[in-house]
User: Fold this.
Amino acid sequence: MTTAPVTYQVVKGWNDDDIIALYRSAGWWRDYYDPSGIAPLIKGSFIFVVGIDSGTGRAVAMGRIISDGVGAGYIHDLCVLTEVRGMHIGAGILEFLVREAHAAGLSSLYLVAEPDTQSFYEKSGFISDNGLIFLTYNPDGQNET
Assistant:
C-alpha cells in the first residue's frame, strides 16, 4: 500500500500494464480483450486522468471523460487499485476530472455508477435522477461491457 502522495495528471498516453491492472482491479478487464486497444482508448478520450503514486510513478487510479467538447461529458472508467482504496484517491480523481471538465467548457457531466457507489458520487455533488433510464445496446446480445 502506498503512503506517498498521489498526484493527478491529464495524459494522452500511459503504460498499458498500469491501465490494465486498474481495469482488472475494478473487474472490468476480460482476458480476451486486446491490450493494443488501451492507447487509442486513452488518446480518444476527451480527458484521461491518472492518479500517480509519487513514490513509484505507477498509476493507482484513473478516470476519463468522453465528450465532443461542446456541452456535456460522460465520466467513464473511474477506478482505483484495490490496495489503495479508502485513501480518498477516488474522490481526488473525481474532483480533478470535474475541474478539468469545467475548465474545458463542459457544462454538464453524467456518469453511470456501479451498484452501491451512489453515495460516493453524491458526496461530490452528483445527484441521482430517477426520471432517467440507463439503456444498453450490444449487437451480440450480451450484457457484458
